[in-house]
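Here is one chain, start to finish.
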Amino acid sequence: MGEIVAKANWESTDAAARSAFDLVITSVLLDAGAGAGWHYHDRATGLVAGRSEGLALASLRWYETVALRTSRAASSELTLRRCARVDSEAIQNAFQARTGNPLLGLEGRASLLNRLGTVMESRPDLFAICDSPRPGGLFDALRARASNGRLPAATILETLLEALGPIWQGRRAWAACRWAIAGRILRWWRTIRRRLRTLHKLSQWLTYSLLEPLQNAGISVSNVHELTGLAEYRNGGLFVDMGVLNPRDRAALAKTHAVMDPFVVGWRALTVALLDRLSPWWPRD
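Its structure:
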């Protein structure tokens, strides 16, 4: 990232923040499961990485290629037209996917960026306040929602859910819990208004990832501790490995589950609940 900052010729702090938003948002959206057989070789450093680390490095280099062609690239390159034109072949080439180095979900990643382009076009009030429609336009929307230079962390999450909600497809509205915490079985029924709280890991992850660009632009983010921990496989897997979380059907761990399967949704929900139980030991801002 330091290389990009050194090469860039941003007109202002706000322009730099928009560019950072461009990178963060597209990078997070591209970071779905890569599969165990894929890796990325960074020719600049010689580093070879897989999974999330490889995806992060690949998306950084792709951004560097398309967004730093001109001194004003930060305001002209990552527009809705570019997102709308992305196809699986472009991602395949940028991420070095090929026979012997397969990357899962090429079509899905391209479709997600295409839907982002559609949403950016339909919501200029969120993506095009000071520039042509682009992911980085969300910086201006968030800056407008700050008060005296302070922005509550919850407002960032709320804005992301509003802005990006339409790009997600095939999500279920409820999940029956099939897990037990330390041997105690919990049941979560379909009464979402009383017993369940919806959460979206990628939107939460994006919220955390945008804190630094906002702060670099002079916007102070408050009440970060009000956000939950991330319901991702490292946290959830640790609870399983330590015997804190146990599926009622032990054979379920040997099966493959879709991301919207009640088993996965319940696992993630319990992960967040357990992280909250650990929160007294977390530092406060």
